Amino acid sequence: MGGYLPIVGAAMSITEFDEHREWMLEKQRPLELQDFVPGDVLNGNWEHLADEVLAKLEGFDGPLGIHGPFWNLDISAADPDIRQVVQKRLDQGLEVCRKIKATHMVVHSPYTNWDHHNLDQYDQGRAFKLECIHENLRAAVAKAEDIGCTLMIENIEDVDPNVRVDLVKSFNSDAVAVSLDTGHAYYAHGSTGAPPVDYYVKAAGALLKHVHLQDADGYADRHWAMGEGTLKWEPLFRAFQKYTNHPRLIIELANNKELPKAAQYLLDQRLAQ
Question: Could you give the 3-state DSSP secondary structure of residue 97?
Fold first, then answer.
């Protein structure tokens, strides 16, 4: 690629941070903590865990975020009782961000493969879904604005790269941005007829503020180290350079023992450092 090489970080639990501490501190790499996803953690004494995080991160000054809660949480939920749970979990995640001074929280997109094929058969299908999302996120967006945190809306089953971009634009807030998971996009491309992964980058442009880097095979959500799958990395990083403004690049693997190998692959290919 030549020229400027972006700095990659990683997603991990705070217990894994010690193992990768030297690498993370070397360039103050972006860190995304995954400890605060489970509902039982958020309903429990998460403040104690947050204090542990703050103690272990002494000396770390890089970009910090968390993966927000997502299990069984549909941010387009229409049922009022389910909405209460969705809104509660988002609020709890943002309280964690406030406590540890995290500046991003990943939130899963609610757009499914079914939506792609069916929403337009209803006269108000897309408008109703968007209305539900706004109802569920209204308080969370206001809180994120207040504490200086950005909700990164990550593609899950999204077939159309533009649907999430339009969602982010509809909030007209710097506290809502687009996230890309390369493996999710590659799965959608290989299994549901979505366009190639770099199309997701071009569609988002400067609204893309966060990326989960993982390799895959286009069939499933593998979270393999770079080079283990069949994703074409050079065109993807060219798209980052051409269309985006330095999003947080975060390696997200199923096994963080593979993290050094994944990072070295990107460095060897002159894609990132």
Answer: helix
